Amino acid sequence: MQLSERITGITGGGSDGWDVFLKARRMIAQGVAVTELTIGEHDIRTAAPVLQEMHRTALGGHTGYAAVPGTDALRDRVAARVAARTGVATTRDNVLITPGGQAALFAAHMAVCDPGDIALYIDPYYATYPGTLRGAGAIPQVIGTHAEDAFQPRVEDIAPFAAKARSLLINTPNNPTGVVYSRATLEGIASLCIAEDMWLISDEVYDTQVWEGAHLSPRALPGMAERTLVVGSMSKSHAMTGSRCGWIIGPQDAIAHLTNLATHTTYGVPGFIQDASCFALAQGDAFEEEVAAPFRRRRALAQDIFAGQNIVGLVPAQGAMYLMLDMRATGMTGEAFAYDLLESHHIAVMPGESFGASATGHIRVAMTVADDVFAHALRTLLDHAALRSAERAAAQ
Ligand code: PMP
Description:
Blueprint: H1 5-8, H2 19-29, E1 35-36, H3 48-59, H4 72-86, E2 95-98, H5 100-112, E3 118-122, H6 129-135, E4 139-143, H7 155-162, E5 165-171, H8 183-195, E6 199-203, E7 228-233, H9 234-237, E8 246-249, H10 252-263, H11 271-282, H12 285-306, E9 313-314, E10 322-326, H13 334-345, E11 347-348, E12 350-351, E13 362-366, H14 371-395
Parallel strand pairs: 1-11, 3-4, 3-5, 5-6, 6-7
Antiparallel strand pairs: 2-8, 7-8, 9-10, 10-13, 12-13
Helix pairs in contact: 3-11, 4-11, 5-6, 7-8, 12-14
The structure holds 4'-deoxy-4'-aminopyridoxal-5'-phosphate (PMP).
């Protein structure tokens, strides 16, 4: 039977750049010990007190349908957190709780794009972005960035596409590059959104993972609160990836319509998950810093390991749980190097090309294994790159 173009067109049937990851998983299934530096999942699990709260509230009976836009308690808690972090007045009416950031990204585009509208996004991008925009019926238009700018977007690269676009999706701190958008970048983007009457969808799921400088939410810039939908999540900040709890922050009427969409799609998020999320948020900044600390530490380890050599370029980045490495000195594509490293040393990384053309010749390393394993894997990676680069020089 024929399926809809909407669903068959989400990825176009391609692998979407996950081949190296899938090969690593096959090797693991065959019993090979692979060091996996691929997906963005903590090496710690959700904290026991959060799970105890989940258990307590579920046993207490919060297992029926929860309020579709989210419980008042969680919406209030998220609103207070956003207001405290950004200075923008935010109430529960600006908050929709969603089953994770991914569902929020999809719903946000459903809310602002009609079928056939152009939705902009920035390359390198989180792997699901183009499919999410297509799934919502929009036409994705990618905007490249430049390795020499450490992948900080240039507003002049976005501008030519803005007049015809309905929305622009940005992600800071960024997956896969780790770049935190500067105030100048965000102010330029805000001016463009206002001048061209464009919605901004701001994916801020890594907002607690900033190693240098500060995260600025563009919703806080003048004139932006009325045209910005912020995507947030418990996944990265509280090591709750499996709980599927995120949110959209936006203007009250947008949230009302998004609640209507939720009524007809997800019908909300389980109450015991929301209670546990509320509890986790109530633990405050110290808890969030504890969850982020291993990545901060491993980034510093990587800076030491890659210092004083010019074979592997560590892209100067300020946040998130990934490193972007420039492998062009080896003469290999990111994909070729990733396969080579997996086959030679059983270390799995993501090819930069999986995240768009701008990251060609790069690899993304997730900082998601124990410090000693991580440091050993990076040293092995560096030695391997040096070997390939020496072989290349000898052949020339
Ligand atoms: N945005 C970005 C940039 C991500 O990296 C991820 C997850 N890796 C998500 C959104 C979605 O996260 P979740 O659905 O777990 O909240």
